[in-house]
Automatic annotation (TrEMBL):
<dbReference type="InterPro" id="IPR003702">
    <property type="entry name" value="ActCoA_hydro_N"/>
</dbReference>
<dbReference type="GO" id="GO:0006084">
    <property type="term" value="P:acetyl-CoA metabolic process"/>
</dbReference>
<feature type="active site" description="5-glutamyl coenzyme A thioester intermediate">
    <location>
        <position position="294"/>
    </location>
</feature>
<dbReference type="InterPro" id="IPR037171">
    <property type="entry name" value="NagB/RpiA_transferase-like"/>
</dbReference>
<dbReference type="InterPro" id="IPR026888">
    <property type="entry name" value="AcetylCoA_hyd_C"/>
</dbReference>
<dbReference type="InterPro" id="IPR017821">
    <property type="entry name" value="Succinate_CoA_transferase"/>
</dbReference>
<dbReference type="Pfam" id="PF02550">
    <property type="entry name" value="AcetylCoA_hydro"/>
</dbReference>
<feature type="binding site">
    <location>
        <begin position="269"/>
        <end position="273"/>
    </location>
    <ligand>
        <name>CoA</name>
    </ligand>
</feature>
<feature type="binding site">
    <location>
        <position position="388"/>
    </location>
    <ligand>
        <name>CoA</name>
    </ligand>
</feature>
<dbReference type="GO" id="GO:0003986">
    <property type="term" value="F:acetyl-CoA hydrolase activity"/>
</dbReference>
<dbReference type="Pfam" id="PF13336">
    <property type="entry name" value="AcetylCoA_hyd_C"/>
</dbReference>
<feature type="domain" description="Acetyl-CoA hydrolase/transferase C-terminal">
    <location>
        <begin position="323"/>
        <end position="469"/>
    </location>
</feature>
<protein>
    <submittedName>
        <fullName>Acetyl-CoA hydrolase</fullName>
    </submittedName>
</protein>
<feature type="binding site">
    <location>
        <position position="408"/>
    </location>
    <ligand>
        <name>CoA</name>
    </ligand>
</feature>
<keyword id="KW-0378">Hydrolase</keyword>
<dbReference type="InterPro" id="IPR038460">
    <property type="entry name" value="AcetylCoA_hyd_C_sf"/>
</dbReference>
<dbReference type="GO" id="GO:0006083">
    <property type="term" value="P:acetate metabolic process"/>
</dbReference>
Length: 507
């Protein structure tokens, strides 16, 4: 037994995954740790999949409702989806097998703002949570739990679940202890108090989770690395998008709308474009930047190391193999520059509004008025989910959406007449950026917005089609209105793609 379990009550509960998992039954609601590629339980899920296989072989059904922080490791999401083990999934996934089951109507999926998850579970919207499975880095002498590389909703899972299984993962560096800030001050209305977080590095909670030992039915030991987040070098399109964003920041500083050198706390979504923007910041005049986001990616570690970023707050690490090696071998340094918090705090509207976040998120498509679709391909098929993009976009100081101007080798325009699904309304979108340019929509009426978005962001091959649409919509006799549309044609780009495989009318 490892020295990570330093409390005798918990030591007595140590068992193997195959034993522990017997507490999970068909129809249970199971809340597990994990946010992006970090902190997913390593032993219990494979053991659960084994049980599901066995139950199916014996002719009975076995599914669970699965609640998480956000996505869990790809392997975990896939193995559960492959055995049809999930009846309902909440709140975010980003894995192809799960995606197929959801889109085929074989898995219920509830896609909600990540800041809402903990409170909605407390409010009872998902019924009782039968079992929580939470990875931790260790158990202290006093029976508190040392968090691992993601926090997500773990605090809430430990509080609300009827039974708890702990995975103590000795792979997580000992020295990670102290990087976390677990806030126990949230309550349900009418008992809410202000969240006293006024700087990204503030500590408002405690380093460890609490758990009622009486609920802990098993402790399982593991020594397994987090899976790595894939990382690809930025391509020319991402670099071009990043360049527009950086030029925009320079302008905002010149106009006195952003502080020189430090800007305001940054939030960047996962992916190529976000990494390119972060890389660009390293080459700019900035020093002492801060970040208040969901995840910390490799690009952020570089910025911290170079002093470009002074402090980064998030709920999870999402690092490549190289990033994990960099962090673990310099953990004493990074612990002084990173804070990991529950996602209800990392994404909290009150805090995001107070700190004045610069929110930069990806999108599938925007329409000519600035409504943004982040989740549904052609309006119907789920891609991933809204994640935290809405938490940051609605409440940020600056709300930016970034995307290449086309997808699928130019067959799809990411600027369309009307989005067939809306995650972020025109009221939440201030800036749209593609490799073509940047549309600053602040202070513009819908008619002006449409002109700016088409001119600055649409791919030149799609501009004439979009201009033709909007001009005819504006000229429609008696029907133009404040936000002109031709309702019979508003989805013609999407319909053409579904019928012919391209939104183009030209070759
Ligand atoms: O699919 O690889 O199969 O071709 O969508 O597109 O351009 O690689 O962009 O990885 O940034 O993802 C919105 C999905 C963008 C993401 C989305 C296809 C495209 C490709 C990916 P292929 P890109 P990204 C808080 C933020 C919601 C969650 C969120 C997302 C694939 O940003 O999930 O923002 N956002 N969390 O071909 C059909 C279109 C398309 C399209 C792209 N218009 N129609 N397919 N694709 N546009 C998180 C943090 O704070 C960390």
């Amino acid at each position: 037994q490892s020295s990570r379990i330093r409390n005798s009550v918990f030591l007595q509960k140590v068992t193997v995954a195959e034993e522990a998992v017997k507490v999970i039954g068909h129809g249970d609601t199971v809340a597990v740790s994990g946010f992006a590629s970090a902190g997913t339980p390593k032993a219990i899920i494979p053991a659960l999949v084994g049980r599901i296989h066995a139950a199916r072989a014996a002719g009975s059904n076995f599914t669970i409702d699965l609640l998480t922080g956000a996505s869990v490791s790809t392997e975990t999401e896939r193995m559960l989806a492959e055995v049809d083990g999930i009846a309902l999934r909440m709140p975010y996934q980003a894995e192809s097998t799960a995606r197929q089951k959801i889109n085929a109507g074989r898995m219920d999926y509830v896609d909600i703002h990540l800041s809402h998850v903990a409170q909605q579970v407390w409010e009872g919207y998902y019924g009782p949570v039968d079992v929580a499975v939470v990875e931790v880095a260790g158990i202290t002498e006093t029976g508190e739990l040392i968090p691992s590389a993601s926090v997500g909703n773990n605090k809430t899972w430990l509080d609300v679940a009827e039974k708890v299984i702990l995975e103590v993962n000795s792979w997580v560096p000992d020295a990670m202890d102290g990087i976390h800030d677990i806030y126990y001050g949230t309550a349900l209305p009418p008992h809410r108090r202000p969240i006293e977080l006024t700087d990204v590095e503030d500590r408002i909670g405690q380093p460890h989770y609490r758990v009622d030992p009486g609920k802990v039915i098993a402790v399982v030991e593991t020594n397994a690395p987090d899976s790595a987040s894939p990382l690809t070098a930025p391509d020319a399109v991402s670099e071009a998008i990043a360049a527009h964003v950086l030029e925009f920041f320079d302008n905002e500083v010149r106009r006195g709308r952003l502080p020189e050198n430090t800007l305001l706390p940054l939030q960047a979504g996962i992916g190529n474009v976000a990494n390119a923007v972060l890389g660009g910041l390293d080459r700019g005049p900035y020093r002492g930047l801060t970040c208040y986001s969901e995840v910390i990616q490799d690009g952020m570690l570089h910025l911290i190391k170079h002093g470009t970023v002074r402090f980064a707050s998030a709920t999870a690490l999402a690092l490549s193999e190289a990033g994990i090696a960099e962090l673990t071998s310099n953990i004493d340094f990074y612990r002084e520059h990173i804070r990991l918090r529950p996602q209800e705090i990392s994404n909290h509207p009150e805090v995001v509004r107070r700190l004045g976040i610069i929110a930069m998120n990806g999108m599938l498509e925007a329409d000519i008025y600035g409504n943004v679709n982040s989740t549904h391909v052609m309006g119907t098929k789920i891609m991933n989910g809204i994640g935290g993009s809405g938490d940051f976009a609605r409440n940020g100081y600056l709300s930016m959406f970034l995307s290449p101007s086309t997808a699928k080798n130019g067959a799809i325009s990411s600027i369309v007449p009307m989005t067939p699904h809306v995650d972020h309304t025109e009221h939440d979108t201030q800036v749209v950026v593609t490799e073509q340019g940047l549309a600053d929509l602040r202070g513009l009426s819908p008619r002006r917005r449409s002109r700016v978005i088409i001119e600055r962001c649409a791919h030149p091959e799609f501009r004439p089609l979009l201009t033709d649409y909007v001009e005819r919509a504006q000229a429609a006799p008696g029907a133009a209105g404040h936000t002109p549309h031709l309702l019979g044609e508003a989805f013609s780009f999407h319909q053409r793609y579904l019928a012919t495989g391209t939104m183009r009318t030209f070759h």
